Write a sequence for this structure.
């Protein structure tokens, strides 16, 4: 319960006026379907069949990630350099090099169609 006198202390001592709203809306109810309405509708329409992919179009698999031992060693060296120099960017570059995600993999060459 609110304490008395708080409105006058804050400067909002004007009386509160709450506008009244007249209720003029009427509620309508929907008709419920009965249990045997399916028999009156007739047979169901055939559902659309999903179109298949065009023939001859195959997607090439993504090239596999190959990390050589040399790249892993270089990445480890770069990571240690980053730790010694307190350079988080260099350390992160070393981690990426170790994982093999530092460069984009080259796209497979396009095949010629006869």
């Amino acid at each position: 319960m609110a304490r008395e006198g708080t409105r006058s202390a804050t400067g909002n001592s004007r009386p509160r006026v709450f506008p009244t709203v007249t209720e003029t809306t009427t509620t309508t109810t929907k008709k419920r379907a009965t249990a045997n309405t399916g028999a009156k509708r007739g047979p169901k329409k055939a559902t659309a069949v999903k179109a298949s992919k065009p023939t001859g179009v195959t997607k090439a698999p993504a090239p596999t990630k190959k990390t050589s031992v040399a790249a892993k060693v270089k990445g480890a060296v770069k990571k240690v350099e980053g730790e010694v120099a307190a350079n988080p960017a260099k350390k992160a570059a070393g981690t990426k090099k170790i994982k093999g995600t530092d460069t984009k993999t080259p796209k497979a060459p396009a095949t010629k169609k006869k």
The chain has a mean pLDDT of 75. The two ends are 87 Å apart (CA to CA).
